[in-house]
Specification:
The complex is a heterodimer of chains A (101) and B (737).
Chain A: H1 4-24, H2 28-52, H3 60-88
Helix pairs in contact in A: 1-2, 2-3
Chain B: H1 2-7, H2 10-23, H3 27-54, E1 63-72, E2 75-83, H4 85-108, E3 128-133, E4 136-140, H5 147-166, H6 170-188, H7 195-226, H8 231-236, H9 238-244, E5 247-250, E6 253-254, H10 255-270, H11 279-282, H12 288-297, H13 299-309, H14 311-314, H15 326-346, H16 352-372, H17 376-411, E7 414-416, H18 437-440, H19 442-456, H20 463-477, H21 481-506, H22 513-516, H23 523-538, H24 551-554, H25 558-563, H26 582-602, H27 614-617, H28 619-625, H29 630-705, H30 712-736
Antiparallel strand pairs in B: 1-2, 3-4, 4-7, 5-6
Helix pairs in contact in B: 2-3, 2-5, 3-4, 3-5, 4-5, 4-12, 4-17, 4-23, 5-6, 6-7, 7-10, 10-13, 10-15, 12-13, 12-17, 13-16, 13-17, 15-16, 15-21, 16-17, 16-20, 16-21, 17-19, 17-20, 17-23, 19-21, 19-23, 20-21, 20-26, 21-26
The chains are: A mainly alpha (101), B mainly alpha (737).
Chain lengths: 101, 737
């Protein structure tokens, strides 16, 4: 059986990939996708801990809630991005500096 | 009856308040109230007068009563009313002349005429244009803009005079006296838009004020000496007179003489005697009824009335036939001099009212001189007859002026509606612009003639003859030959200037278009003239002396027996000194001679001609016409220094330089201190601290805003780095330590 640590390492890598994508990608759609990656890395962690440490707890319910939240988040995020694009003709995060002081 | 006397002065006072407070906008109501008040006073006055002359021994039991008025140290100061023979006579002519003048004012102030479109309050009405045909207007007289105000003021004036007459003491007399001073001020300056009227008003007020100060001092001295101001208590009681006979220690006068002279100076101011006479001619600036009021019914008569009242003071210690006292000498000298002096000015005046003004001064001089020589009854007699004929003459001259103004407007004929009326401008008061008014204004002429004859003393028929004859007789019988001669010359001049006036005004040919078109006035103006003319002639018959040849036999001389009771006890028993016929012949001669010469000199004066007297009299004529330079002298002596004191010294030096200098110095010091405080405390410390706080925060914010790039990913990076950092620190602190 594959040891727990592998799952954890995998989830950490996946999270880092997402984090890098959030911070480094210029396209807002890609940033949104990277956020999905980070959420899924957390999901992997949740599932791994349930399977190896607390098999008798009905823990999948958390994963389902996270997935639902992620879906809702993606819906709003994409809608915002489309709206921004319609006004500003761009989806580059660097160009969206309305909050600049 | 005793109570009724209290009410005699009241109706005009109530009329004054009623007009001022309620009926000012309604002109007809205003004059109705004023005349109604005068009529009531007249009625009560006549009732009291009749009661007075029918009461036996009025001297000892005068009509009147007293009330307690002011509590003083040892009892009450009492005031009251009293009608004795003297005040009965004065009351008689005052109510008659006042009523006549009130009625006359209705016509004189153009009641019933339209309002003039260019008239302003405070200026004489200029006349109104009435459209007669298309594009043509006719100018007529316009109503006085301040019609109601005029009636209010003359009502107050009449109240003051009546108060003065019915008073039984010198204090309420003085109150009436001062109210009259104010009224004369307000009425002489009635047309206050004219500078000359304003100046005349101030002049009248201030000149009489000079006299009033001395009068007041005299009253105080009298009160201090006798403890009373009532006639009975201070002037007629033997106890008071005994105190007053003591020497005052001033110029060798007795108290009576000193107080008499002080009060007499008040009379000099009010009755316009020599040194203080300057205000009366200028008082002609007021409307003519006011002049009549001042000259006949009120002001100047009040002065002489007071002089007659203080007769016991000035004659104290004098016996018939003895040399006259110091106070009497002063009165005789001033009166005699004024009589001649003013008469000689009157000869040279061209203004119809000014002639009469100087004539008044001169006639008042006669009265004062009569008192000075001890001719008590003659002074009262002349006061009464003068009030009638001088009131008549003033109203007559007003009628002439009014007719001339009317004539000047009528002479212009119909004018185009646009533009100002054309034609000559005629001074309607200059006698050289008149002439021939006899036919145009018959009623005015005949009544004026009656008044003029009374003034000049036309023998036998007129009142003035009898009263003036009495004065001359008094001077002659008292062996005051100088006074007698001077008064005789004055009487000659009086007859002369009166005839000059009548001839220039009414006889001959009209000298201007205005005179040619003059017109008789309305009935409200002519009826008072007729009434006063009757008195001007008939008032003399009550005083025909018994010693007069012929007429004396049928005359009981009621005035002498009535007023003569007022003569102080120590002078009694002299009354009918067997009169020489010299004064009688003299007054006959001077009167007829003056009238004849006056007529001969002036009967043929052409239009534009100068006074026929100018050439023969030369420089003296100009000097007299210029009032002997006295007005100019007073101007230099008193007015200019007063103006200098107020404008230059008080205003410019004292006020502007010294007081303003101190104030401005304090202000400047405070300003400097404030500016120092500002520079070194406010700006330097407080402002700097405040500014630094502000700019510091602002700079900090400027620095901080650089962090706000608006790039979400940078925020994120920062958040991650900080999380890592905080995590690492916590790890090291919590786990390793």
């Amino acid at each position: 059986m594959i040891p727990l640590s592998w799952y954890l390492i995998f989830a950490a890598l996946l999270f880092c990939v997402g984090l890098f994508g959030v911070m480094a990608r210029r396209n807002a759609v890609a940033v949104l996708m990277s956020i999905e990656l980070m959420l899924n890395a957390v999901n992997v962690n949740l599932l791994a801990f349930w399977r190896y440490l607390y098999p008798d707890v009905q823990a999948q319910i958390f994963v389902v809630i996270v997935l639902a939240a992620a879906a809702a988040e993606a819906v709003i995020g994409l809608a915002l991005i489309i709206s921004v694009y319609r006004r500003r003709k761009t989806v580059f995060a660097d160009d969206l500096t309305l909050l600049k002081g | 009856m005793d109570i009724l006397v209290w009410f005699i002065p009241l109706p005009p006072l109530l009329a004054f308040f009623a007009i001022v407070l309620y009926s000012n906008p309604r002109k007809a109501l205003s004059h109705s109230i004023a005349i109604g008040g005068a009529l009531l006073s007249w009625l009560m006055g006549m009732i009291v007068f009749i009661a007075a002359i029918t009461r036996p021994d009025l001297r000892a039991h005068p009509i009147g009563s007293v009330i307690n008025w002011l509590p003083v140290a040892n009892g009450w100061f009492q005031i009251g009313v009293r009608i004795d023979p003297l005040s009965a006579v004065v009351l008689f002519f005052v109510v008659w002349t006042v009523l006549g003048i009130f009625l006359y004012s209705v016509g004189y102030q153009n009641f019933g005429q339209p309002a003039g479109e260019h008239d302003h309050p405070g200026l004489p009405p200029e006349g109104a244009a009435i459209r007669v045909r298309k594009g043509l207007t006719h100018h007529v007289m316009s109503i006085e803009p301040l019609y109601s105000r005029f009636f209010a003021l003359i009502s107050l004036f009449a109240f003051a005079m009546l108060l003065l007459v019915v008073s039984d003491n010198l204090l309420t007399l003085y109150i009436g006296w001062e109210i009259m001073g104010f009224c004369s001020y307000a009425l002489i300056g009635f047309w206050y838009g004219k500078k000359s009227a304003r100046d005349a008003a101030i002049k009248a007020f201030l000149t009489t004020r000079v006299g009033d100060m001395f009068l007041f001092i005299g009253l105080i001295a009298l009160y201090v000496q006798t403890g009373s101001l009532s006639y009975a208590g201070s002037l007629e009681s033997s106890a008071a007179l005994a105190k007053l006979a003591a020497p005052a220690g001033f110029l060798g006068l007795t108290w009576a003489g000193l107080i008499g002279i002080l009060i007499f100076i008040g009379v000099v101011g009010k009755s316009a005697q020599f040194p203080l006479h300057v205000w009366l001619p200028d008082a002609m600036e007021g409307p003519t009824p006011v002049s009549a009021m001042i000259h006949a019914a009120t002001m100047v008569s009040a002065g002489v009335y007071l002089a007659i009242r203080i007769f016991p003071l000035v004659t104290l210690g004098w016996q018939q036939g003895a040399p006259i006292t110091a106070a009497m000498t002063v009165m005789a000298a001033i009166g005699t001099f004024t009589a001649l002096f003013a008469a000689s000015i009157a000869v040279t005046q061209n203004d119809i009212k000014r002639v009469l003004a100087y004539s008044t001064i001169s006639q008042l001089g006669f009265m004062i001189a009569a008192l000075g020589v001890g001719a008590y009854v003659a002074a009262v007699f002349h006061l009464m007859t003068h009030a009638f004929f001088k009131g008549l003459l003033f109203l007559g001259s007003g009628s002439v002026i009014h007719g001339m103004e009317h004539g000047a407007m009528h002479a212009q004929g119909d004018q185009p509606a646009e533009g100002h009326p054309t034609g000559e401008h005629v001074d309607p008061q200059d006698m050289f612009n008149m002439g021939g008014l006899k036919d145009r204004m018959p009623i005015t002429f005949w009544t004026f003639l009656a008044g003029g004859m009374a003034l000049s003393g036309l023998p036998l028929v007129t009142a003035g003859f009898w009263s003036k004859d009495e004065i001359l007789a008094g001077a002659f019988n008292g062996n005051h030959l100088l006074i007698f001669i001077v008064l005789a010359i004055s009487a000659l001049l009086t007859a002369f200037y009166t005839m000059r006036q009548i001839t220039l005004t009414f006889l001959g040919q009209p000298r201007t278009e205005a005179a040619r078109h003059a017109q008789e006035n309305t009935r409200t103006m002519t009826i008072p003239l007729i009434v006063l003319a009757v008195f001007a002639v008939a008032a003399g018959w009550v005083g025909i002396p018994r010693s007069f040849p012929g007429l004396g036999a049928i005359s009981s001389n009621p005035l002498e027996s009535f007023v003569g009771t007022m003569i102080p006890a120590w002078l009694e028993g002299h009354a009918d000194v067997a009169g020489s016929s010299i004064p009688l012949l003299t007054s006959l001669l001077v009167s007829l001679l003056g009238l004849y010469v006056g007529y001969m000199v002036y009967r043929k004066v052409d239009a534009g001609a100068e006074d026929p007297l100018r050439r023969p009299l030369g420089a003296w004529y100009a000097w007299a016409q210029n009032r002997y330079g006295i007005d100019a002298l007073y101007h230099t002596l008193f007015v200019r220094p007063a103006v200098w004191l107020s404008e230059v010294f008080t205003y410019q030096i004292l006020d502007k330089k010294i007081i303003d200098g101190i104030l401005e110095g304090i202000a400047r010091g405070t300003l400097g201190l404030g500016s120092l405080m500002r520079r070194f405390i406010d700006v330097a410390l407080v402002n700097r601290a405040g500014d630094l706080t502000g700019s510091g925060v602002r700079g900090l914010g400027g620095e901080m805003r650089k962090a706000q790039t608006g790039k979400v990913q940078q925020y994120m990076l920062l958040a991650v780095l900080l999380t890592v950092l905080v995590g690492a620190v916590l790890f090291f602190i919590l786990v390793r330590a």
